[in-house]
Design brief:
With about 525 residues, the chain is mainly alpha-helical. It folds into two domains: about 375 residues, no CATH class; about 100 residues. It contains 22 helices and six strands. The strands form three sheets. The chain has a two-stranded antiparallel sheet with strand order 1-4. It is globular, with a radius of gyration of 24 Å. The N and C termini lie far apart (about 65 Å).
Length: about 525
């Protein structure tokens, strides 16, 4: 009897890709475009390529660098690695309190109370819950480009999905896939549409009407796919590709006894007073926040509103139980994350610090000693270390390609291949090109700076709207973020959820293929129809 072939570990797969990238540096000649800095309409300075400046350079084949690439990858992705470690440690402190368990069980009990209502019964209360959560994160992805932030929510939504009878794939679909669908729709995303249109000389966020239609189509198809899969797993959980891996989450599945409420102690009240005092100070110092939504700015008393929310609901929750008070700390963290990203351009450093403070506040509210908080934090970091390390490993792929000096050469080859093939074929080939290069350069803003100076000028030559070129970039940048091994966010999400990369690929590739076809179909009207902004 033949021995069953073992599935390679995620680390092994990523290392194989590093070796393949190194082999490419022996085959593809070196080349480089000249760079120049330009200032966009919003004041941002971007380094872009001169499309007519390509020259072949000496090759730089990579050999022993496949090993040093690991070190360089860890350095290059240090911000996301530290982000994951801090998130893991902070949530481990919060999880010790069982507050999230109590919150999930209370949420499930509340949903059961309304599932007898005719409309909810007809649509399915669980379907409504999954849809609303995914739409919320899709809006976040479409408006301010939520991506790295989804890593922090995996620890919440995977246990929720398991408790609802689904699997960890459904759990990460709620936040990560939801945000990815919005990212691809990119209504007002300043990091993709904003930069791409700025570099193309288009009014920022123009053409939003057709992008909104596209966003609706993408979300309708994407959410329907997830609901279909979720209902199949609900009927037979063992059909899940990650049924064995989910044993980690099932062993701590929320039971009814988790609803036992504990009265808040003196330390919880002290932490409440301290947090309110800090919020009041910042409400006075920053009464109005300038929230950026696309190209528009709004003065809004965001911090005072959040302060009022926490003061009222924090006080009420303290009177009920310590668990609900800690859930309010989590709610405060999420609201501050939204305000920070939209109003103060927060990135992973600020967000990691915010969640770290959340973990400390939870431990203090539970009256844990400093030593216990420290030990819990270390335990959380240990538990999530493998997820953090694989992000650095995947970063080595980009290092090899950059050091091999072949990225510009690949870009040059593709741009030359699009001559004399017709308008629609050219736009679709741009889409294929942007999809392919997203595997090499998963950063949307970096890819826009690299490709749009060439693509926008090429669209003028063939008589196609630059908006069509931007949409080809938008779709090409969006969908493959959910499968490319060079995406630190995807690798981080899978690591936290404990889903092997090879199993994720097996599940997600038909989904990506379907979305890619949808994207190709949505590009057709941009060539042949009169659309507002095109």
């Amino acid at each position: 009897m033949s021995k069953k072939r073992a599935i390679p570990h995620t680390y092994v797969i990523v290392f194989y890709i590093i070796i393949f990238a190194a082999l490419l540096t022996w085959i593809v000649p070196g080349g480089a475009f000249e760079r120049q800095q330009i200032q966009l309409d919003n004041g941002t300075v971007k380094e872009v390529i001169d499309s007519n400046s390509f020259q072949y350079t000496d090759s730089n084949p990579q050999t022993w660098q496949v090993f040093s690439a690991l070190f360089d990858g860890f350095v290059d992705k240090a911000d996301i690695i530290v982000f994951i470690l801090l998130i893991g440690g902070a949530f481990w402190i919060m999880n010790e309190s069982k507050a999230i368990d109590v919150g999930i069980f209370s949420f499930l009990k509340a949903s059961k109370k309304v599932e007898h209502i005719w409309l909810f019964k007809k649509l399915g209360i669980n379907n409504i819950i999954l849809t609303l959560i995914m739409l919320l994160f899709s809006v976040f992805g479409a408006v301010f480009g939520m991506s790295e932030e989804t890593i922090a929510f995996i620890i919440i939504f995977v246990p929720l999905a398991i408790s609802m009878g689904y699997d960890s794939i459904v759990g990460i679909s709620l936040c990560f896939v939801g945000a990815a669908l919005g990212f691809a729709g990119a209504l007002l995303n300043p990091f993709t549409i904003g930069i791409a249109q700025g570099l193309s000389g288009l009014p920022l966020f123009s053409g939003i009407e057709y992008r909104f239609f596209s966003w609706i189509v993408i979300n309708f198809v994407g959410i329907a796919w997830i609901l279909r899969y979720a209902n199949r797993i609900k009927k037979n959980p063992k059909l899940s590709l990650v049924y064995e891996e989910d044993a980690y989450w099932r062993k701590s599945e929320i039971k009814e006894e988790s609803d036992g409420l504990v009265k808040a102690g003196k330390s919880a009240w002290i932490s409440f007073v301290f947090i309110v005092a800090v919020l009041l100070y910042f409400s006075y110092a920053e009464f109005y926040s300038v929230l950026q939504i696309g190209n528009a700015s709004y003065n809004f008393p965001a911090i005072p509103v959040v302060t009022a929310y926490f003061t009222i609901f924090g006080f009420l929750s303290l009177r009920k139980s310590i668990h609900f008070y800690i859930l309010n700390i989590l709610g405060l963290t999420i609201f501050m994350l939204i305000v920070g990203v939209m109003g103060y351009s927060w990135y992973v450093m600020e967000i990691a610090s915010l969640f770290f403070a959340m973990g400390l506040a939870s431990g203090i509210a539970m009256n844990y000693s400093p030593n216990k908080i420290t030990n819990l934090f270390i335990a959380g970091v240990k538990d999530i270390t493998s997820a953090a390390l694989v992000v650095g490993l995947a970063g080595g792929i980009i290092i090899i390609l950059n050091n091999g000096q072949i990225i510009d050469t690949l870009l040059y080859y593709v741009s030359k291949s699009m001559n004399d093939i017709g308008k629609l074929a050219s736009v679709e080939l741009m889409y294929v090109f942007q999809t392919g290069i997203n595997v090499i350069i998963p950063s949307g803003s970096a890819k826009a700076a690299l490709t749009m100076p060439i693509m926008s000028q090429f669209s003028d030559l063939i008589g196609v709207s630059r908006q069509a070129t931007v949409m080809a970039f938008q779709f090409g940048d969006g969908f493959t973020n959910m499968i490319t091994p060079t995406s630190g966010v995807l690798i981080g999400v899978l690591g936290v959820a404990r889903i092997p990369y090879e199993k994720w690929v097996k599940w997600v590739w038909p989904f990506i293929l379907m979305l890619t076809i949808i994207g190709a179909l949505l590009l057709i009207p941009t060539v042949y129809m009169e659309l507002n902004g095109f």
